[in-house]
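In the current project phase, the collection of sequences with tokenised folds has grown. A sample record is quoted in full directly below:
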Amino acid sequence: MNAESTSETGPIFRKLYITAPLGRGHNLDDLQRIGLTCSELTIGVGQVEPSPTRETPRSWRRRLSSSSRLSQPQERGPSPLWDTVRNALRRRSSVVSEDAVNAASLDISQLSPRTTREIRSSREIMAGMISMDCDISTSPVLPMPEPLTITTTADQRVVDTDAEGRAIDYWTGILACFGNINTLTFRVKGETGWPGSTNVEYVLTILRCAVERAQLPNLKRVRFQPLHAMGIVVMRWHGFGAIAQAPATAYRVWQNITRLDLQIHNPMAHLNDAQKRLFHKMLYDYLSSFAGTVKQLRFVWLDEDGPSPVALEQEAPISGIRDPIHWIKLEGLWLGNTTKLDYTVRTSIPRHAPSVRSLKTLRAGQGQTPDVFEDHMSWVEVVLPPEPLNRYGRDRASQGWWDVIDTDVHEEPRDSYLADSTRSSRDPDYI
């Protein structure tokens, strides 16, 4: 857990960064003491960066695989140890069974010192993987959940639902320590294609359910920097077929969000036609669930260009089967690496986002870093066409999205919305 301290009178923590799964050595008492002063919380989901004292399971798998430099020792030693480890690695499970750790406790005194160190290091990794994804050491506030067992057979994933419920309760208790946060950021390291349900998606589902159950009345901003295609699927809380049943408080939590930041890995190069159609539907449902409340939307595609979030209904996979999303309260829109910008400016915004006063687009070649939204030099202000007046002399914003734009109004030249570099962040209409 990392923290930034900003105070003139004392060590008051404003920004906190934690990872899921959490490592050992953290205590909920510490979170309760500093959580009330925290305003921004960042949760990293996925592969944890390796540290000098502990290896990640990925590096552990590389070291113990058959192609690794660490091959089966030639000394006289217990071969069941290596067989058990390799069998555990072949089972794509989120935890390793206790039998594997017991096997790792066999007598290794006959092995060389180097091999002994390798086995002991691997044993520590295995012991850490047995614990629950949200293991943060013994806490007097919440009991530690029992180990969760996830097994993979053919094309079916079997999850211990009781342990899943305990994990949700556990993370709900953790997030309850941050009752005053106004910004929640997820940094997700998932596979960019369509891998199906993996441990990353499982942890995201747990976190989403915990956010929906925790009391976070001040939460106004949610950021995903970045998120992958399957992350959209599991984070979708509204609509038919949403993963995990949302409680009654879910609507109140997500409808309280007024600022949404999304950096999404474009998966189209890895999907077939059916998967493309499904992804577009999931993205459409997720965005539409915020359309009635969000005032600022900052949206960037990673890897390659993708569709505009305010013109998503124009995409071929869902064209004709989805109506336009009406962004009733949207005032600020940032678009990065999106297609159909001309259609977005001339048609989608006037008709479906009439309250937009500020539009920014990302400069070419930018947007591949998590801090792209903080780098204002990478963005260009776009001058929107003037608002046409209807027959009563009122503009489109005062009437609402259902107004029909008068076709007799003179249309500005095509280049009227080109960037105006003279506008600054001190402009009253700047968002």
